[in-house]
Amino acid sequence: MMPLTMLKSGESGKILKIGGQEEVKNFLGKLGFVVGEEVSVVSSQSGNIIVQVKDSRVAVSKVIANKIMI
């Protein structure tokens, strides 16, 4: 298990765990970040990571991405 920030552009993984406070987990869940979902990194630049989750591309900060374990 490793944080989402460890993936390079073009790599993907399955979400195993989401850490953080309950409101952060709920917010990420509404964006499609749920345990068992496949995510892939589109790009990483200037402190943000753009990921493909379900049918959407979402930008998350590295702080939040460190709470998503794959």
Characterization of this structure:
It is a single chain. This protein is an alpha+beta fold. The chain has helices spanning 22-31, 62-65, and strands spanning 12-14, 17-18, 38-45, 48-53, 56-61, 68-69. The chain has a four-stranded antiparallel sheet with strand order 1-3-4-5. The N and C termini lie close together (5 Å).
Which architecture does the CATH hierarchy give at level 2? Roll
What's the order of the H and E elements?
A: EEHEEEHE
Derived from helix and strand composition plus strand pairing, the structural class reads alpha+beta
Please identify which CATH superfamily we are dealing with: Ferrous iron transport protein A (FeoA)
Total domains: 1
Strand order in space, largest sheet: 1-3-4-5
Radius of gyration: 11 Å
Proportion in β-strands? 35-45%
Number of alpha- plus pi-helical segments: 2
Helix content: 10-25%
Give the CA-CA distance, first to last residue: 5 Å
Give the total of beta strands. Answer: 6
CATH topology, what is it called?
Answer: SH3 type barrels
CATH class: Mainly Beta
Rough outline: globular
Q: What characterizes the major β-sheet?
A: 4 strands, antiparallel
Mean pLDDT: 94
| Unreliable spans | none
Defining key terms:
single chain, 70 residues, alpha+beta, SH3 type barrels, four-stranded antiparallel β-sheet, two-stranded antiparallel ribbon, 2 helices, 20% helix, 39% strand
Q: TL;DR of this structure?
A:
It holds the Pfam family FeoA. This protein is α+β, with helices and mostly antiparallel strands. The chain is 20% helix and 39% strand.
